Each structure stands twice: as C-alpha cells, then as structure tokens.
Amino acid sequence: MADATTLEIVALLAVGFAGGVGSGLVGVGGGVLFVPGLVIFLDESQVGAEGTSLLAIIFVGALGAWRQHGYGNLRVRDGLVLGVLSPIGVIAGTVLSNELPEQTLKYLFAVVMLYFAFTLGRRAIWPPAHGGAEAPPRPDSAPG
Amino acid sequence: MPPMSARLVRLAVIATAAGVFSGLFGVGGGTVIVPLLILWLAYGEREATGTSLAAIAVIAAAGTISQGVAYGNVNVLAGLLIALPALGGVLAGTALQQRVSPRVVSGAFAALLVVSAGVLVF
Predict the structure, then answer these.
(1) Listed ranges A11-15, A47-51, B90-94; the one with the highest mean pLDDT
(2) Which of A16, A66, A87, A100 has the highest CB neighbour number within 10 Å of its CB?
(3) Element holding B17 (H helix, E strand)
(4) CB contact under 8 A, A124 and B110
(5) Which of A22, A61, A131 is nearest residue B93 as measured by Cβ atoms?
(6) A33 lies in which domain range?
(7) CB-CB: which of B53, B62, B103 is closest to A124?
(8) Alpha helices per DSSP H over B26-101
C-alpha cells in the first residue's frame, strides 16, 4: 500500500463507491465487492482482502444503521445483542479463513458471490409480486 | 425454557453463524442475519434489514480485531480508502433508488458479481 500507484488508489476509491452504491440500491455490496476488488486491483491475498474489507464494513454498517434508525427500522437492543454475542463465531471463522489454502478460500468466496448473483438475478427476472423489486421506492434496504 | 431465554438462544445462534460467515469471508453477515430474524424472531423485512446493519457494524469491528490483531490481515489505509467513497456510494445508491429500475440494477449487479467471481478465481 505504501507503494500503491495512483491507478491503484483510484481503483480502490471506485471499488468502495461501487460497493456503497450496491449496498444502497440492492442491499448487496460492501464486502462481496470490496474483497474481490482488493484482490484483483491491489494484489492483496484473499484473507488479507477479507480483513481489510471488515474494517471498511464497520463504517458502512454504522451509516446504514443510523439511517435505518431514522426510518424506525432498527431494534437497537437486538442489534447490539447480535453484535456482542458474535465473537465466538467471528474467531472460528477467522481461524478457518487463515488455515484454509488460499485457492480453496477463493473458490468458497466465489460460491458466495454466485449465490448473491443468483438471488439478484432471480429478483431481476421474476420480481416479487409485492414488497419486492417492483414495489414503490424503498430508501431503506442496505444489509451490507 | 422461559420465552426470554429461548429468544436469547436464537439470537446467540444467529450471532454465531453470522460471525463465522463474517470471519471466514470478510463480509458483513447480513445474508445470514436477515432471513433468520424473519424466520425465527418474526421480524418484518425492513426491521430485519435495519437491525442487521447495527449487528454488522459490531460484527465487522470484532472481525477487524481478530483478523488484524491476531493475523495482521488488515490494511488500514486501504480499508479507509474504500470506506470513504463507500459512504458516499450508500447515500448515492439510496437516492438513485427513486430513479432507476430495480430490475435493471439487480440484473447489472448480478452480472458484475459473476464476472468478478470469474476474475477472482482464474
């Protein structure tokens, strides 16, 4: 990063913006774009990109939560309980991501990406009858 | 089991599953949290989405600490360089929601994900 070129910095900014837009528009974005962006444009290792992505997600999640709170869509207590009870799982996932071979982790991540693509593609082709893609604008969907 | 503790157990299971997903893949875990809140705790979709975002911020902080402190896997400068435009992107995306077809956007993002997955693996 210390020797990152201007082009790499521009790429990072673009990846961040795209992830944010995806997050605000379709509720997919954040990590699922940050991680491949960091691997492809910055040559980070898969697990290094994942750690870096988590740092960025703190801010995206906090902004989203703050906005949702304004819409009355946030049960603060449950949200905090979920966060506070997460560390056992987080540590297990972290250890696993560092133990798995790089290429295996990439394949697994690609599966996650394809699953997200599948759910989005399904929404594009067969929008839910109501409350879904063709419903009136909902300025509130951004599950990071 | 009294209702409160049954509820707490469900939250703990959701939190642990989302935590594994987050630590393993470097994503927020909303994919895990939102459907389970709806299924197990009778949340509405919007409440589930909103509540998951608060959880994600905390889970990502836990993940940043465990990936960063234990394994040195957090590039702080790169993370901040991504976060800053991402915040602008969230606001832009939310505003754009009023003007663009959700079907087109969903399709475009699906295509972007498929292409990125290919580039990532090969």
Answers:
(1) A47-51
(2) A16
(3) helix B3-25
(4) yes
(5) A22
(6) 6-125
(7) B103
(8) 30-41, 45-65, 71, 76-96
A59, B67: Cβ pair inside 8 Å?
no
pLDDT, tens digit, for every residue of A47-67? 999 999 999 999 999 998 988
Rounded Cα–Cα distance for residues A79 and B33 (Å): 10
ipTM of this predicted structure: 0.92
- Residue A64's nearest CA partner among B44, B87, B100 is B87
Compute CA A107 distance to the chain's CA centroid, rounded to the nearest angstrom.
17
Q: Do A124 and B75 touch (CB under 8 A)?
A: no
Evaluate if residue B68 carries a pLDDT over 80.
yes
Residue B14 and residue B20 in contact, taking contact as beta carbons nearer than 8 Å = no
In a domain, A10, yes or no: yes
**pLDDT tens for residues B13-41?**
999 999 999 999 999 898 899 999 999 99
Question: Given A15, A83, A124, which is nearest B82 (Cβ)?
Answer: A15
